[in-house]
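Supplementary Note 3. Input sequence used for the single-chain structure prediction.
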Amino acid sequence: MTGRFRIEVLGAEHDRAGFACGSDPLDRYVREQATQDQRRRTSVCYVAVDEQSGAIAGYYTLAASSVPLTDLDAPMARKLPRYPSVPVARVGRLAVGLAFQGRQLGAALLWDAGQRAMQSGMGVFALVVDAKDEVAARFYRHHGFIPFSSNPLSFVLPIATLAKKS
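The predicted structure, written as discrete structure tokens, is reproduced below.
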């Protein structure tokens, strides 16, 4: 990744109005909804800030969630307790600003989400994401995510896999 970025929780000091990633729903979310979700404690928005300009270069959201054990593929489910659902950390949104695309910032944001999930102090089996389209699905598959058996655009990456890469 070229350029220097710091990743931190979205705050009042960040210029959200200038963020544009090419997806209206993702742009609108960081501008209008992210701080409300944080206030309600339904998710946390982490922003990558360009250290030269101070601009938001990208962001992702992270929230506690769970998935039904039956949604996981059989080899993965066999390794887990027979509870109806398993705890996960959900990456709800992930976006990189147009001016910062092509620098592997999306991969860095995804890695950061995994690190935060591992270090959360809570029992979290995996990172889970829902790809918005096939381009996003390829991105997640490239980074080791496995599709859910019930939905080809939903993916899971066990925390144990992330721990091996750290």
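The beta strands are 5-9, 44-50, 56-68, 85-96, 126-130, 146-147, 154-158. Residues 8 and 28 are 19 Å apart (CA to CA).
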